[in-house]
Amino acid sequence: MTYRFFGFVLPALLLGLTPPAAYAQTQPTTKAARPVTKPARKPAAKSAASAASPASFYTTYAYRSYSIYSPDEAEPTPANGVGGTLTLNADGSYQKRLRLAGPSGPMSFNQDGQFTLSGDQISFTYPGPNGQPKTDQGSFRLDPKQQLVLTIEGFPAGSRGVYTLEAQQPAAGAK
Fold first, then answer.
1. Mean pLDDT of the chain
2. Distance CA 109, CA 124 (A)
3. Any residues with CB less than 8 A from the CB of 166 and at least 6 apart, and which?
4. Residue 136: which CATH number?
5. How far from the centroid of its chain's Cα atoms is residue 120's Cα?
């Protein structure tokens, strides 16, 4: 039985064969072999992260809107006077320069840190007020018009912020 496991099951598992496929590989054929043609396959859909090429994803975006969704409110609360930029670099660094209109004038939220992508998930890590790293997590969607939508999970649990950003056009003559 040990030989059967190591001689049959283990190689099948290493080759990624399912038990029926592995068993079929060990059975002698009595018919003449004929060529196997595989049906044409459509290419697999790319994840948002892999679809975002350096030329289209890693750039500077302008903040266009920001809405806060709270589990206690039926409708989102839009922020006023949204402006500023978010720069995502291919090396995983980012610079956030968000401006919002506040009751006593403009408020600025500046962060320099690192971001990571996994599928359509994104996380931003930056130094917190006490110097310890703080991480904001959420998801992203990039559409063909170069509009980036970030949904960042918030505090308290269940709340989230949704940012809409637009890729900035490079300045004339810029490389």
1. 76
2. 14
3. 61, 62, 64, 146, 147, 148
4. 2.40.128.20
5. 3
Tell me if 140 is assigned to some domain.
Answer: yes
| Helices vs strands, H then E, count in the chain | 5, 9
- Which tokens is 54 given? 């350096």
Backbone angles phi, psi at 114, to 5 degrees: -120, 145
pLDDT in tens, 93-128: 999 999 999 999 999 999 999 999 999 999 999 999
Chain centroid to Cα 124, Å, comes to 12
Number of domains in the chain: 1
Kind and range of the H or E run holding 54: helix 54-57
The three-state secondary structure class of 52 is: coil
The answer to which of 69-73, 84-88, 153-157, 164-168 has the lowest mean pLDDT is: 153-157
Considering the domain boundaries, does residue 64 fall inside one?
yes
Strand partners, 139: 121, 151
pLDDT recorded at residue 18: 38
Q: Is residue 55, in this structure, part of any structural domain at all?
A: yes
Q: Is the pLDDT of residue 140 over 60?
A: yes
